[in-house]
Amino acid sequence: MTLKLGVLASGRGSNLQAVLDAIDAGKLDAQVAMVISDKQNAYALERAASRGIPAVHLPPADYPERPVYDRKVVELLKSVHVDTVVLAGYMRIVTGELLDAFPWRVVNIHPALLPSFPGLHAQRQALQYGVRYSGCTVHFVDEGLDSGPIILQAVVPVEPDDSEDTLSARILKEEHRLLPEALQLLAKERLAVVGRRVIIR
To answer: Which sites bind N(1)-(5-phospho-beta-D-ribosyl)glycinamide (predicted)?
Structure first.
């Protein structure tokens, strides 16, 4: 099947670009139908608009309650027949309004080997803890903080002289590879959630 993706992003949108590049290269059976950002100046919106993809800034200040905000997100995504939602550097915690509208079809990319270092500044957390290996995780989203069933992970060694910036850059390179790979498994209908585990068929 061809996925119809809605991408939520708060920043540069480099993972959005990785998805678009994978589609262009024939490695991902998908179409990006809409990009939504909570930040007006998010470069992800420019990436989308430059390709004729609907790009929407949805200001959180207009929706003081998170479920109401997410209800509007769902309305926008459904208007273009999205079937799968990708959180690509999206800095808001999503609610059941979004998750219930797309059951086990909301996917996140996180710059750590979950369940270690959930939440913000995962790379900084890894360096402070002194781990020898970090990496990234693609997972289905549930109502917890980076706690949903894990789809794929990639390991990145932590070098002795790493800073947060250098480690982040190496992890990001793996994110750009891993996210389209995980989405292609979804497109090929090879993923099933059983309990808290993802089975790859």
So the answer is: 13-15
